[in-house]
Write a structure and sequence with these properties.
alpha/beta; six-stranded mixed sheet; three-stranded antiparallel sheet; 10 helices; about 40% helix
């Protein structure tokens, strides 16, 4: 595990003038996410960082790591589990980490790194467009275009009398946000931490941010999360911060099957699958055993995955793949998967992942009302 820090600013209680507790709390949440929910491990790392960078020495008040641990307990962020005999995070911590992830994603979007991302803070149901059309019964009166309506009326009115007719009314076209059911697939195969690059932490943060956005802004939407390695299994939102990569192969087939079966039970007109992965499909269940091949793309596995992508297409379930790897060999597979499903694919860096997913989610919620 490696950390990189710039020089600590000791002129304030903490960076940006935060209190000692808030400064350490921000850092602890990051470490806890990387540690997969292991409070003891996160605290050991925190002590190591304090020893190396003298973080607590920079506080204007006398506040040490022991004070921080005690205050976390008092505030209800961690508690002692008698059964496991260890400190564990509470639901309050789960919510705080999700909110922090959401704030981080939106901070990145507001910087405009991609140049085309829209920040969907408003949560409104309708967005006005510049195009207009003739009014029809049932249209919202608040969408009437006063300028266009006035010009139509003046064409047949005189100086003595303004004659407004029903066919003079012009209304704006709008984008309408519809409810959508999403299944987010997260790859937990071993390659997500290979080559000295932590890919799972950014993936978890994006999943937490997306779940927080949906729960707070789009209550009518649904989000199910499926982790996959040798197999695929559903997880709860509260488990997201503490997912860990395992010694797994990549069972993309089972992940897509699980997602499709979940969506088949949903009574939504709009359904979609988001898949975050960095690797090729390398295993599948066959005849009660795990058929696996990590040495290149196995056509037997790939063909089954492509067949499943076609089944999703028949069920009107688009698959959007977020490939966080630059290997052209793997990109060819993703291209075939996308073509089979008529879906979408993004080959994104870890820094861009959040922006791409949020942009795509909002786009898929919106349809044009003519």
């Amino acid at each position: 595990m490696h950390f990189k820090y710039t020089e600590w600013n000791k002129k304030h209680s903490g960076p940006d003038g935060k209190s000692p507790f808030d400064t350490l709390w921000d850092l602890f949440q990051e470490l806890l996410t990387i540690a997969g929910g292991d409070v003891s491990q996160a605290l050991r790392w925190l002590n190591q960082l304090d020893e190396e960078y003298q973080i607590t020495d920079g506080f204007e008040e006398d506040f040490g790591i022991g004070d921080f641990i005690e205050e976390m307990q008092e505030r209800g962020y961690i508690r002692y589990d008698d059964e496991q005999q260890v400190m564990v995070p509470t639901a309050k911590t789960d919510r705080s980490i999700r909110r922090k992830s959401l704030e981080e994603i939106f901070t990145q979007l507001s910087k405009g790194g991609q140049g085309e991302h829209k920040t969907p803070f408003s949560g409104k149901g309708l967005e006005r467009q510049p195009e207009t059309r003739s009014w029809r019964p049932g249209d919202d009166a608040s969408h009437i275009d006063s300028s266009g309506t006035m010009l139509n009326m003046l064409k047949h009115s005189s100086l003595d009398k303004f004659d407004l007719r029903e066919d003079d009314l012009e209304v704006y076209n709008t984008d309408h946000y519809t409810s959508v059911s999403t299944v987010l697939l997260i790859d937990l195969s071993h390659s997500m931490i290979l080559y000295g690059e932590d890919r799972i932490t950014p993936a978890k943060k994006v999943a937490m941010a997306l779940s927080e956005l949906i729960m707070n802004n789009y209550a009518k939407d649904s989000l199910d999360i499926v982790a996959f390695g040798n197999g695929a299994w559903e997880i709860e939102v509260k488990d997201l911060p503490y997912l860990k990569v395992g010694p797994y192969h990549t069972n993309t087939l089972h992940a897509l099957q699980k997602a499709r079966h979940i969506l088949q039970r949903k009574k939504f007109s709009n359904k979609q699958i988001f898949m975050i992965t960095d690797g090729k499909p390398s295993c599948m269940h066959e005849g009660g055993r795990l058929y696996k091949n990590s040495f290149g793309l196995d056509r037997k596995i790939v063909n089954k995955v492509l067949d499943e992508a076609v089944k999703c297409k028949r069920d009107r379930i688009p698959i959007t793949t977020f490939m966080i790897a630059r290997d052209p060999y793997l990109q060819n597979f993703v291209r075939d998967l996308t073509e089979a499903n008529s879906g979408r694919a993004y080959y994104s860096s870890l820094n861009d992942l959040g922006g791409y997913i949020f942009e795509d989610y909002i786009r898929n919620r919106r349809k044009n009302v003519k």
